[in-house]
Amino acid sequence: MDPICCSDLLRQNVCREHVEEIRTKRFNIGEDQQQSELALMLQGAIEQLSAELYQKDIRFLPELLQNAEDNNYGPGVTPSLEFILTDQDVADVGASATLLLFNNETGFQEKHMSSLCAVTMSTKKGQRNKGYVGEKGIGFKSVFLVTAQPYVISNGYRVRFQDMPHDQAGLGYIVPEWAHTPTDAELGRVYGKERGDLPTTTLVLPLRDNKVEAVREQLKKISAETILFLSQVCTFTVREDSNGASQQALSITRETVWSKYGNHEGAAAANSTVRLSVEKSAAPKSSSRLYFLSQHSFPVAAAQVVEQRKNVDSWVLTLAFPLDDRILGSTVGDLYAFLPTELTTGFPFLVNADFLLASSRETILFNNPWNMGILGCISEAFSRAFLCLLHNSDNMLGSLDSSKFKVRDVYKFVPAEKCNHPQLEEVRQALLQTLRDNDRTVLVSGKVGHRIPKNEKFFCKPESGRRIRPAFRKILQEACEQGVELPELLLSGRCYIVDGRVEKDYDKQLEQIGVPRFSAREYAQCLKSPDWISSLGEKLYVKLLDFVKENYDSPEFLAVFPHIPLLKYRSDTHEPEGDCFLLASVEEAAAHNLGGKKIYRSPLAEGEWLSKWTNLLRLYAPVCYIPAQTIQALDGEDKLLEWLEEKADIKPLTVFDYAKEIWKLLPVIGAADIVILMTQFLFCASQGNYFAAEAWESFIKCTVGFRQDCSGRMPFVDDHGSVIVPGRMNRTKILLLPRRYPEIKWPLLFLDDAIWDPHVMRMADTYMEPQVRMMKDLREETNLSRYKDFLCDFLGAADVLEFNPPNQRLPARIFSTSTGSIGKEQLFLLLTWITKCLKKNQKIPLNFLQSLGENAWVQTLHHGLQRPSRCFLLDSLHLYALESTDVPVLDYEIYGPYILEYKNALQVLGVIVGVSSEDRKSATFTVAAHLNDLSQKAARLVSRESVTRLYRYLQRNSCSTDWEPYSPVAAAFGGPRIWIPAFSSHGTHEPSWVQPADCVIRDTASALSKKLVPLERIYNQDREILQFFTERLKVSEVPGIESYCELWLEWTTTKHAVNRKECVEVWMKIALQHSNLQISSTHFWRKFCSQAWIPSVRAGDRSGASLQLTAPRDVFIPDDLSLAHMFATLAETVQPRFMWFDNTEIGLEAASKLCSQIGVNNLSTSVRKLEVPLTTLTSRDCYEESSTGVRYVCDGLFRAILGYLSKNGVNIRKRHDLLCPLMATPEMTIKSSILRSYLLQNDSAVFIEAKETVMAYWDRERKLLYRLEFEDLKDLNVESRTNFCIQFVTTIAEGLLTQHPSLKVDGLRDFLLPLVPFNFELEFVDCVLRHKNMQIYPEDEKFLASAGL
C-alpha cells in the first residue's frame, strides 16, 4: 500500500474513533438510556438560537466565509475559498441540487470537530485580539437553513450532521455520524480532476428543494468587496455545474499592491493599496478596482468597555477609499465588521471595525457603548487618511499605472449627502468639522497668480479658500498669463482661490467643508482695484465687462455692481490719445453724475458743423467718451454694447444727443447771452439736416410740454435781462414774444400792465438780435417766421391769439365808462381770441369769461351799457315776440354788421344770437335777469305793455327750461318782484315793485285786504300772466297761513278784545290750515307759537260774551268735562278761562292741537286732587254694614273682576293675588258728608279750588273700604247715584291696578260701571260675563269657595 494512502487510512481511523467517542461520551449513543429532558431543552435552544441569528437563507454564506478567514493555512499557500453549485445529488440523499465548499486550509483537528458537536464552544471565542472574526460558536449551524444534513470532509474526518433529533441522543444539529459517501472520487468529478488533488476541507450541502433558487440567486449577487477587509482569504470563487458542464461564474482576487506602515502626524497608521480583480463568465475580460486602505488604532476608553470585548484594549478602524469607481454589482453595505453588513452609511468610503452586531449580522448595535466609541473615532481616522492621501497621493499612487486617480479626486470622499441614521449623521458632521478645522484641507489654484513655487502644491484652511465663478477664474488666469498681478484682496493672504478642477468636479463637497463662495463684496473689492483694471489688456477688460454684464441683474450683485467704478472714459474731447482715463460706475454713468455729464461711446459723427458748436460751448457743455482703444475692443460685442446702453446710458453721440445735453445744461447757465446762444444752437440744429425726422420728433416729445400745461421747460431771458429757469419757479405765467417782433398783437390788448403782470412774462428784445458769432448761420438758414415758431414751440412763447386767456377776473375799472378801455377794436380782438380758442377746442378760463359776461361794457339800443349776458342780436329778436325796447340789443350803428361774423364768440359771452334750444334756454334766463335788473329801477320807467310782454314770454318759455326765479342772483336783490301800477285801494298812487309774498291772486278775507295786493284785479284776470305769478313766482291763490298768523300777531300786540267774526275769519283759518300742513319746523310758525295770545272765555260762559285774547299760560284746554263742569259751577269771578273754539268751523281736537303747540295746558294735567283726610274717618262716623243691608263688596264683584282679568291674559295666580286684598277688606258706611278738594294753578301762580262729595274711598293702609250711607241706591237722586257708581268702580279699579301699569284702570272701571246699579247680582254678573265672552275657571271657583263665598 502506498505510504501516503496508509497515512490517510490511519488518520481516518483516528478521526473515526474520535467521532465515536463524541457520540458515546457526549450523547450517550449505544447505551441503554432514554432521552433526557435536558437533551430536549438543548434541542429547542439550538433551533431557537439558529432561527434568531439567521433569519435569512443567505446568512450561512458569510458565516462560511468567516470560518474560512479564521482557518489556518500552510506556509506558501494562498488562502482560497470556492463554492460549487451542482444539480447532482452528490451525497445520494435525493437532493435536487448540492452546494459544495472547498477550502485549502490545513484541515480539521480534534478540537475543531469537538466544537462542531457543541453549542457556543467555538475555538475562537474570546480571541478577538488575535484576529479571529467568528465568535458566536454556531457559525457552521447556519447551513441548516438550506440543508437538512450537511457533510464535513476534512483531514481524515468524514462526518454528517442532521437537523432531526437522533433517536437515542434526542438532539439534532450537533450529533455527528460517520459518512462513507460521497467518496473522494465522487467529489473529484465535481471539483475537476484536471485541477489536481481536492482541497483539504470540503463541505457538502444537499440543498432543500425550496432553497435551491434562493441559494443560486444569492451566489450570483456576492460582491467582490466581500473579501476587501479579510486578511487571509485572497481568492473567492463561485461556480455552477449544470448537466455535467462546469463553468466559472465568478472569481474574486484580492491583491495588496502597495503598503506602508508607520506614524501619521504622531498616530499609528497602516496604509495600503488593494486591487480587487473580478472575472465573470458573462464578461469578455476581467475587471479590477483599486482601494486605498488606511488603518488606524485608537485606545478603548473605560466608558466604552463591554463584556463581549473586555480583553480588547484598542479599536482598529480601517477605511477603504475606492480610487476608481466601485465594482459594478456591489450590493453589500459600506459598513463592515470584517465582513459586510447590510447597513448603508451613505459615506463615499467603506468603514471596517470590530463592531458588535445584531443577532442577524445585518446591522450594528446602535446606542451600544462599544459601537458608539468606534463611531466616535471615524472622524479622526478619516481626517488622517484624507490628509495623507491629499498630500501624498502622488508618491503613494504614482507607480500605479492602472489608476486614473488624481489629487483633486481626494475630495470625492467628503460625505456631501446627509445620512439617514441620526448617529451616522453625527459622525458625518464631526468628520466635516475636523476638515474645517485643519489648516491644509483645501487645494489652492496655482494658475490665477497666487505666489506659489512652481511645481508645488499649496493648501489652506477651508474658511480661507474661495470658490469663484468660472468666467472670473478665466479672467484671473489670463491676467496671470499676461503678467498682471492679482487684485490686492487676493495678494493679502486673507483668501485663496480654490483649484479650478476641484471646484468644477467637487463643488458640493467644498461647500460641505465650509469653503465659501466669493461674495459680491469680494468681487467688488477686486473690481475696485484701479491699478488692476488699468493693467488689463483691452480684450481682457472687455471680458471683465462681459462678466459684470452676465451677473449684473442677479440679486447678489445688484447691490454692489452698479456702484463699482469700472467704466473707462475720457473727460476732454480734444485731449491727445494716451493711456490716461477715468473710471465711472454704471450708476454714475446712467444718472449722469459725472459733473452733470454723460458718457458716449463714439466720437462726433456730424463733422465740422457740430465740432464748431462743441468748441464754442466747450466751457458750458463738455462731453465724455469711452477711449478709442476700448471702442475698438468692443467691436462685434453687440450684446455688451446693448447692455452699456441699457444700464449706463452709453450711446453714440449725435446732434440729437448733444442737443439734449444743451437742453439739460440750460437751467444751470446764469448768463443771459449764453442762454440766448444755446437757444440759437437748438434753433439752427432743428433747421439744418442734422436731425432725422424721427429724432426731431423724439426730441420734441422728451423736452417740450408747454402745449399741454401752458408752461415751457426751457430757460429764457425776460425783458428785464434776467434768466428765468422754469424748474426753480412756479411757471404759471404766459410767456409773450418779444415786443419788437413784427405784427405782434398783445401790446394792443394789454392796456393795463398791472392787470396782466401777475399772469404774463415778456421775452427780451435781444432774442431778435442774433449773436455776432451766429449772425451768418441765423440769416442763412432760417427766417423770422420759423424763428417765431421755434420760440413758440421750445419756449412756450406766444402772442395773444396763440394762448388761452388767463384764469383771472378782470378788474371793474377796465369796464368803467370813464376810461372807455374796451372799445370797438379791443372788442373785435377779444372776439377773435375767443373764436380761435373755440376752433382749437380749448376751454376758456371761467374767471376770465365771467368777468367779461358780468360787467356792463357792451353798447345797446335803448338800454345803454349792458352785460353781454343781458343782450340780444337784433336779427333774432323778432323770433322771441319781443321788441328792442323790452330787452338790450347790440347797437349795430356802433359795431357795424361785421359783428354777425362772431356769433359763436358772442354766444360764449352770453349774447342771444339764435333760436336753437340752447339759445331759447339762455334767452329765458336773459329775459328773467333783465326783468330782475328792471326791478331795481324806478317802476315808473317801465311801461305796462313792456312788462306784460316780458311776463307773458317767461310764462310761455319757462316750462321748457330749468329757469328758477328764486336764483342766488335774484335773492341778492331781495328776490323777484312784481310790477304794480298805481293802485288806490292798496294805498299806492304810482307804479311800484312788490314782493310776491305781498301779493295774492284773489282776496277772500276782508281782514287782509290792506296787507295783500289782489293781482286778479290789476291784470284784468289775464290767466296767462296770473298763472305765471302762481307757478313761477309762487304767488298764493288765496291768503296763506303765514298771512293769517302775521295779522293775528298784530292783534296780539295791538288789542286784546276781539269779536267772534274776527276769530272765525282768522283764528279758525289758522287752526284749519295748521292741521292740514306740516309747518311745525318753519321759522314763522315758531315765531307765531312763541308770541301769539289765545282767544278764551270764562269756564261757565257758553255764549262767548267774555271772549278776549289771553296769554297762553292763563288759559286751559277743557279736556276733562267732569273737571270742567266742576270749575264752571264756581262764581264768575273765580272761574278759570278756557280756550275758545267755534264748533261750526272746527272741532275740539283741532283747536286743542293748535293751542297745545302755542303752550296752553290741559285742564286734567293742571289739576291736583287732594286725598281724603283720614282724621275725618273716625269710628263714630262709620260702622260696618249690617248683614241685612246691600253689600257691594260681594261675590258678584269678585266674579266680575276674575272674569275680566282672565279675559285680559292675567294668569290664575296673579289674578288671585290681585283680588285677595279686596276680599279681606270690610265695607264701611260714611255717616256724614266728606268733601275732596281739587286745586287748579295757572302759570301766573293763581290758585282756584273746587270741591266734590266723597261717596267711595278705599283706605288700603288701614284695609277699609268706605262708601256713602244709604239703604238703597234708588233712594239717591240721579246725579248722586251716578257719582256714587263712578266713584265706587274708580276706587276699586285704582286700588286693584295702580301698582300694575300693564293693566288699564279705565278698562276695569268701564267694565264694572254698568254692574253697580244691579248690586252685582250673581245672575246678572254671570249673564254679562257670558255676553262679554269672559270665563270663570274651576280654579277660580275653588278660590272663591275657599274664601267662604
Automatic annotation (TrEMBL):
InterPro entries: Auxin_embryo_med, HATPase_C_sf. PANTHER family: ATP_DNA BINDING PROTEIN, WU:FJ29H11. This is Uncharacterized protein.
